[in-house]
């Protein structure tokens, strides 16, 4: 299983450990997405950046639709557009479970990715 992680908020003025984690994942700019394997090491890294990003399991159809947006052939990074109709009714500072955009979206990440392609 693969997990898509999308950087939603800017990485300016955040603690050094969080900046290092973003760098290790390859997330440099807003609306960048990285697809990683579902392993405990990655889950720990995703948990550290959950206040700046949204994530969830991605399906094969969505990955195929995102393929033209890949940075390079051997890269795991995708440059996406801002989503059509926005991230959510409460914006990018609130958790997804409370109506915002941050954190675990579970299966609804596929809908967001399709709006960003």
Task: Offer a few descriptive terms.
117 residues, alpha+beta, Ribosomal Protein L30, Chain: A, 5 strands, five-stranded mixed β-sheet
Task: Report what the structure shows.
The protein has 117 residues and is α+β, with helices and mostly antiparallel strands. It has one domain: Ribosomal Protein L30, Chain: A, CATH 3.30.1390.20. The protein is built from four helices and five strands; from the N terminus they run βαβαβαββα. It has helices spanning 16-25, 40-48, 60-66, 109-116; strands at 2-7, 32-37, 53-57, 77-79, 103-104. It has a five-stranded mixed beta sheet with strand order 4-2-1-3-5, with no helix packed on it. The longest helix is centred in the first third of the chain and has 10 residues, at 16-25. 25% of the residues are buried.
Tell me, briefly, the overall form: globular
CATH architecture: 2-Layer Sandwich
Strand coverage percent:
15-25%
In the sheet with the most strands, the strands line up as 4-2-1-3-5
Return Rg in Å.
13 Å
Low-confidence stretches: none
How many helices does DSSP assign? 4
SSE pattern, N- to C-terminal: EHEHEHEEH
Provide the CATH superfamily. Answer: Ribosomal protein L30/L7
CATH fold field value: Ribosomal Protein L30, Chain: A
Helix content: 25-40%
How far apart the termini lie comes to 21 Å
Mean pLDDT: 93
CATH class: Alpha Beta
- Helix/strand/pairing category: alpha+beta
